[in-house]
Design goal:
The protein is mostly beta strands. The protein contains 1 helix and 10 strands, in the order αββββββββββ.
């Protein structure tokens, strides 16, 4: 009788273990970043670095953490908001701080508007947000260092290639 109950318990344990589902681990489902290339306005076939570039989200007090601060860059990847249909950034060329800690660089503001599309990846990853770009505009001021903005790929579903070109 004891052998039967031990066998039955072993049978239940084996059934219990084999019925467990694998852990869902998310390895490659991230909301994509917007890729921006900086282009020479005089020769639109050539990229052009922006010296000492700083990128700050409008209304934020810290720099965008996907861009190395105050470095010379010709391409950046920046996050768009996943809960709103517009994201604005301050792009600061020749970024530096004066003795009082105030920004002294050339500041331009760009506004990106888009539609959000949630995409369910898996139970472990959940949803990612992809974007359909509607517009990319520059707030005009007398000292703009950016001359033009062009959307080259409207769908932001990965961060593998350029979505927007900024001419300067």
């Amino acid at each position: 009788m004891k052998k039967l109950s031990v066998g039955f318990i072993l049978f239940l344990i084996i059934i219990g273990i084999s019925s467990c589902e694998k852990d869902d681990i998310c390895v490659d489902a991230d909301t994509p970043l917007l890729v921006i290339d900086f282009i020479n306005a005089a020769d639109t076939s050539a990229s052009k670095t922006v010296p000492d570039l700083r990128v700050v989200g409008l209304g934020q007090t810290v720099t965008v953490n996907t861009v190395t601060d105050r470095t010379d860059l010709s391409t950046i990847s920046i996050p768009l908001k996943t809960t709103e249909d517009t994201t604005s950034f301050l792009l600061i060329r020749n970024s530096a701080s004066d003795d009082d800690g105030f920004e002294t660089g050339d500041i331009d503001t760009i506004n990106i508007t888009y539609s959000r599309m949630e995409d369910f990846k898996s139970r472990g990853c959940g949803f990612v947000v992809n974007y359909e770009l509607n517009s990319a505009t520059l707030e005009i001021n007398p000292n703009n260092w950016i001359s033009d903005i062009e959307i080259v790929r409207t769908q932001v579903i990965n961060s593998d290639s350029t979505h927007v070109k900024i001419f300067h």
